[in-house]
Structure formats: C-alpha cells, structure tokens
C-alpha cells in the first residue's frame, strides 16, 4: 500500500529532488497537519458522551465487557494526544507509526464486523452502535481509513517536515 | 621520517574525526530515543488520564434518583396498569423513534384497552439513543419529561400526547423544553411549577442515561422492542405478524385460566406522595 512512496526515488531525479528537498518538507507539513486534524476531530467527537463511546466499542462485539469502557473512555484521549504531537511535529515518525497501527486496527475491526454480518456504525467520528442493515457503510469507512493510512505512510517514509519540533530540536 | 610523521598525523586526525563522528551519531541516537520516550509517555499519560476523567464524567448505571413508582432492580422501568395482571408487556421506546411513533398511532388504543381491562401490566423502558446517531437532545429531554410526568402520575397521557405530536426523526423539536412543556398542556393538570422545573432542569438526566446504558447492555438493538411475557412480538411473534387483533389474541391466549388484574383508574401509575423537589427513593419492587 505504501510502496508508492518508496518507489518514488526511482522515478527520475527531478521528482526525487522534489520529494527529498524543500518541496517534500512543505508537502510533509500539509500531510502532518491533515493527519493531526483527522485525529483531533475523531477524538473530540468521542469525548462528549462516555456512554456513547463505550457503546460504539461494545457494538463491535469483539472486546469483553471489562475492556469496553476503558477503550471507549481512553481512545479519544489517545487520538487527541496523537493530534497534538503531530500538530507540533514532535517525533513525527513514531507518531505516524502509531497512527498507522491504530488505523490498521480500525480497518481490521470494521472488516470483522462486516464479515460477521452485524450491522453497526463504525463510530469513527462519534456516534456508533447498531444501525439498520440498510444503513451500514463498511466500504466507505474502510476506504476513508485507507486514505488516512496513506497520510501516515508518507510521514513514516518522509518524517522531515517544515515547522516541526523535530527540526527545531535537530538544529 | 617526515613522511612517517605526516602519515602519523593523518591517521591521528582521521581517528579523531572518526571518534567525533561516532560521538555525534551516539548523541543523535540518544536524542531520538528521548523523543520516542517522550511521545510514548505523552500518549500513555493522556490515555490513562482520559480513562479516569471519562469514568468520573460518565453517569452511573444505577441512577441516583428515579421517578416515583419506577420498578426493576435499578428502578429503570416505568410501570403502567395493574401490577397483578396475568401478562406483562414490556416496551422499549425512544421518544424520537419514528417506528415507535407509528406503533403507538396504530396500537395505543388497543394497549390502553388491554391495560384498562386488567389483562396486561405495562413496563416501559424509555431509551434515548437516537440523539447519538442524529445529534440533538430530543430523546434525552423527551425521556426526562416523561419521567417528570410519571412523578405527576400522568405518564400514560403525556406519553400518548408526545407520540401523537412526534416530529420528523431529523427534526429535534423535543430538544426544546418549551415545546415539551407546551405539549404537556394537552394533559389536564400536568403542567405545574414542579413539572416545569423538572423538565427545564433535566432533573432525571442521570436516570435517563442509566436506562439507556441498561438498553446498551441488553441484546436488543432497535426500537420499538415489544415483549409479551419476555417473548418478542414486534414485528412478528414467530411467524405471525403483529396487529391490534393479533396482540389481543396473543394476550388472551397467554392469560387463559388466570385471574385478571385489578382495574382502577385509567392511569394506574402511583402518584407521588410529595410534590417537593426532593429525591424520590421509590419502594423496591
């Protein structure tokens, strides 16, 4: 999935210069902020109603009841912490790795719900829980997460971005 | 000699350069490890803090206060009709749920009749999950207002009024306490300062949340969920489609040979003993 980025340096030296040089760092800044906004939005949407967040987790019917609340309560704060770290650009590569792991987990969870034939809303940006079988949007939810995964992948392979705490610390 | 000297100087310089390079590489690696440590720590602390904070913010599953006469082990259920009726009809409804609205419009007269004849004891679970998917507060405020009406001993009448005046699912008019109080004027004697304060202050918000959390943990996923003596009868009982006639038939079949319940006033929900805005501790069932 992320091999596009790794293949790019072979695709002509002009492109490589662009990706590795200033332009790449500017683009990286855009990607970093975009991913930060995704996590910020996802986290804030899950915070207002703890019972709703817990129910969104419970609806997947994967975790035991004892873990439903800790995950439902903790996940939005994990997402907000990632948003904050990406926003200031501290440890961009490790942030992106954690983001990718989280997104892969979400994709696996949604796929599993789809495969088991249960009808739920992913609860990705608030909401969640059982929905009418005509209202499931598994494919859209998975594709959306794959899009976010591409952002994370870019930052794993090109973690150097403009205006980042990383750059400031390295100077 | 001078050759050797130069040679020696160069190797010394090279060694120094190598050492300095190694030193720099080590410093760089350490910096990286520190940053990774900080990132992991920030995420771990944020998540742990989040669990604690949300635990404190979440409303308890056992409500602190419940409307008068609520039954069940956590006082989450609003009863209507004679408690000694031979059959129990359990109803899970959300004030905003359109399918509940059409169920009520079709079945309300039949259900009221069964209740008044002493054939069924109604157990209402007023859930509030539509606010989650569509946003708004209509389910929660509507459920709270129904709890306030239960306090005033007029649950059934207000329940019927709300479903008769139910807005579109996407319109959140029950999210306005003014609307809820205006609709209550259709029930004679319901609107009192106590009732108004109860609706406006969302007095039973914690109870409403507890009722919903109980529904979350149940195996039921949608509303209306209608159970006759524990058996689902909506939209079908086995192979038979529900209809007002069939519902009466099923109840009569279940009641065969059993004495009917005591019939009294149309609204058998107990009136509260005091109108003071204090915490009601309903009697245990």
Automatic annotation (TrEMBL), chain A:
Is the Membrane keyword given for this protein?
Answer: yes
The annotated topology with respect to the bilayer is:
Multi-pass membrane protein
Name all Methylamine utilisation protein MauE domain ranges.
Answer: 25-157
Pfam families reported in the protein's UniProt record:
MauE
The residue ranges crossing the membrane are 26-44, 71-90, 97-115
The reply to whether Transcription figures as a keyword in the UniProt entry is no
Q: What is its main location?
A: membrane
Q: Name one GO biological process term.
A: methylamine metabolic process
- Annotated GO CC locations: membrane
Q: Which UniProt keywords apply?
A: Membrane, Transmembrane, Transmembrane helix
Source species, domain of life: Bacteria
- Report the locations given in the UniProt record: Membrane
Q: Write down what this protein is called.
A: Methylamine utilization protein MauE
**Which organism's genome codes for this protein?**
Kitasatospora atroaurantiaca
Automatic annotation (TrEMBL), chain B:
The UniProt entry, under Gene3D superfamilies, shows: Glutaredoxin
Q: Where are the transmembrane segments?
A: 33-53
Gene Ontology MF terms in the entry: isomerase activity; oxidoreductase activity
**Positions of the Thioredoxin-like fold domain:** 81-253
Question: InterPro entries attached here?
Answer: Thioredoxin-like_fold (IPR012336), Thioredoxin-like_sf (IPR036249)
Which Pfam families has this protein been placed in?
Thioredoxin_4
**Keywords per UniProt:** Disulfide bond, Isomerase, Membrane, Oxidoreductase, Redox-active center, Signal, Transmembrane, Transmembrane helix
- Disordered: annotated span: 1-24, 251-285
Low complexity bias spans? 262-285
Family, per the entry?
A: Belongs to the thioredoxin family. DsbA subfamily.
Q: What is this protein called?
A: Protein-disulfide isomerase
